[in-house]
Amino acid sequence: xxxxxxxxxxxxxxxxxxxxxxxxxxxxxxxxxxxxxxxxxxxxxxxxxxxxxxxxxxxxxxxxxxxxxxxxxxxxxxxxxxxxxxxxxxxxxxxxxxxxxxxxxxxxxxxxxxxxxxxxxxxxxxxxxxxxxxxxxxxxxxxxxxxxxxxxxxxxxxxxxxxxxxxxxxxxxxxxxxxxxxxxxxxxxxxxxxxxxxxxxxxxxxxxxxxxxxxxxxxxxxxxxxxxxxxxxxxxxxxxxxxxxxxxxxxxxxxxxxxxxxxxxxxxxxxxxxxxxxxxxxxxxxxxxxxxxxxxxxxxxxxxxxxxxxxxxxxxxx
Length: 318
What we know:
Order of helices and strands: HEEHEHEHEHEHEHEEHHEH
Strand order of the largest sheet: 1-2-10-7-8-9
Oligomer: single chain
Strand content: 15-25%
Number of domains: 2
Structural class: alpha/beta
CATH architecture of the largest domain: 3-Layer(aba) Sandwich
Largest sheet: 6 strands, mixed
């Protein structure tokens, strides 16, 4: 029964559309990851981690899966676990969007919302400590651990990275937002194998400590982190670019109004980085092929990035 359910889910994960945007100086392509099963790129690692854990006996029908997440990964896990009749506990924090929280309350076995700030001014470390505490008290828990589980980056290496390689004869740049590190690690390894001269640009947000930046309160989920994932040790990154919260907002607005892409925060961040990177580069005679990922839709950001009132108040909170 579980295997049949997983097979059905597998048919709706991956092989997402590739969409070319109209740009003057580059050939810009977006991989529309919001066409995945639950609407985000996180379906890929969620499925791979659960599938592998079931295959090797780490999860049984009596197990409870648990994870700390700002949104998409928890929704993906909750949905998959619901389909295979396994309990899932989501550990979230006050920065989660109301839509994500409502979805999780609808489909997850339990939702735990922490409210204690950690030493970085965020909640990630508190969420992880909560998960660890619950796992210590209950040996029946299985922590998917997206920051350290190798199936996170392997799902991108074997899936999304390969799909991108098969879509291009040549590829010059890949711009990828970073949080847990799984996406950029898996994709960068795969792309460098196929296109040795490609430049992989990591995009991070102000306040994130992933690449050694100073910790600062962040207000947009899906990009940046308060820790550096061990997975990133394997990543093949040529350059890191930082964007501001305002850059993310403007990137989302341009994508929506100029390119008809209604995207989430990390996508807006990456698009902003791309426009800045190529702003002073003359590529008209030899346009490079550039790819980025639309990791999710903007629905969960209607009360933040796409809210005029939220944007007005943002400068006072930064």
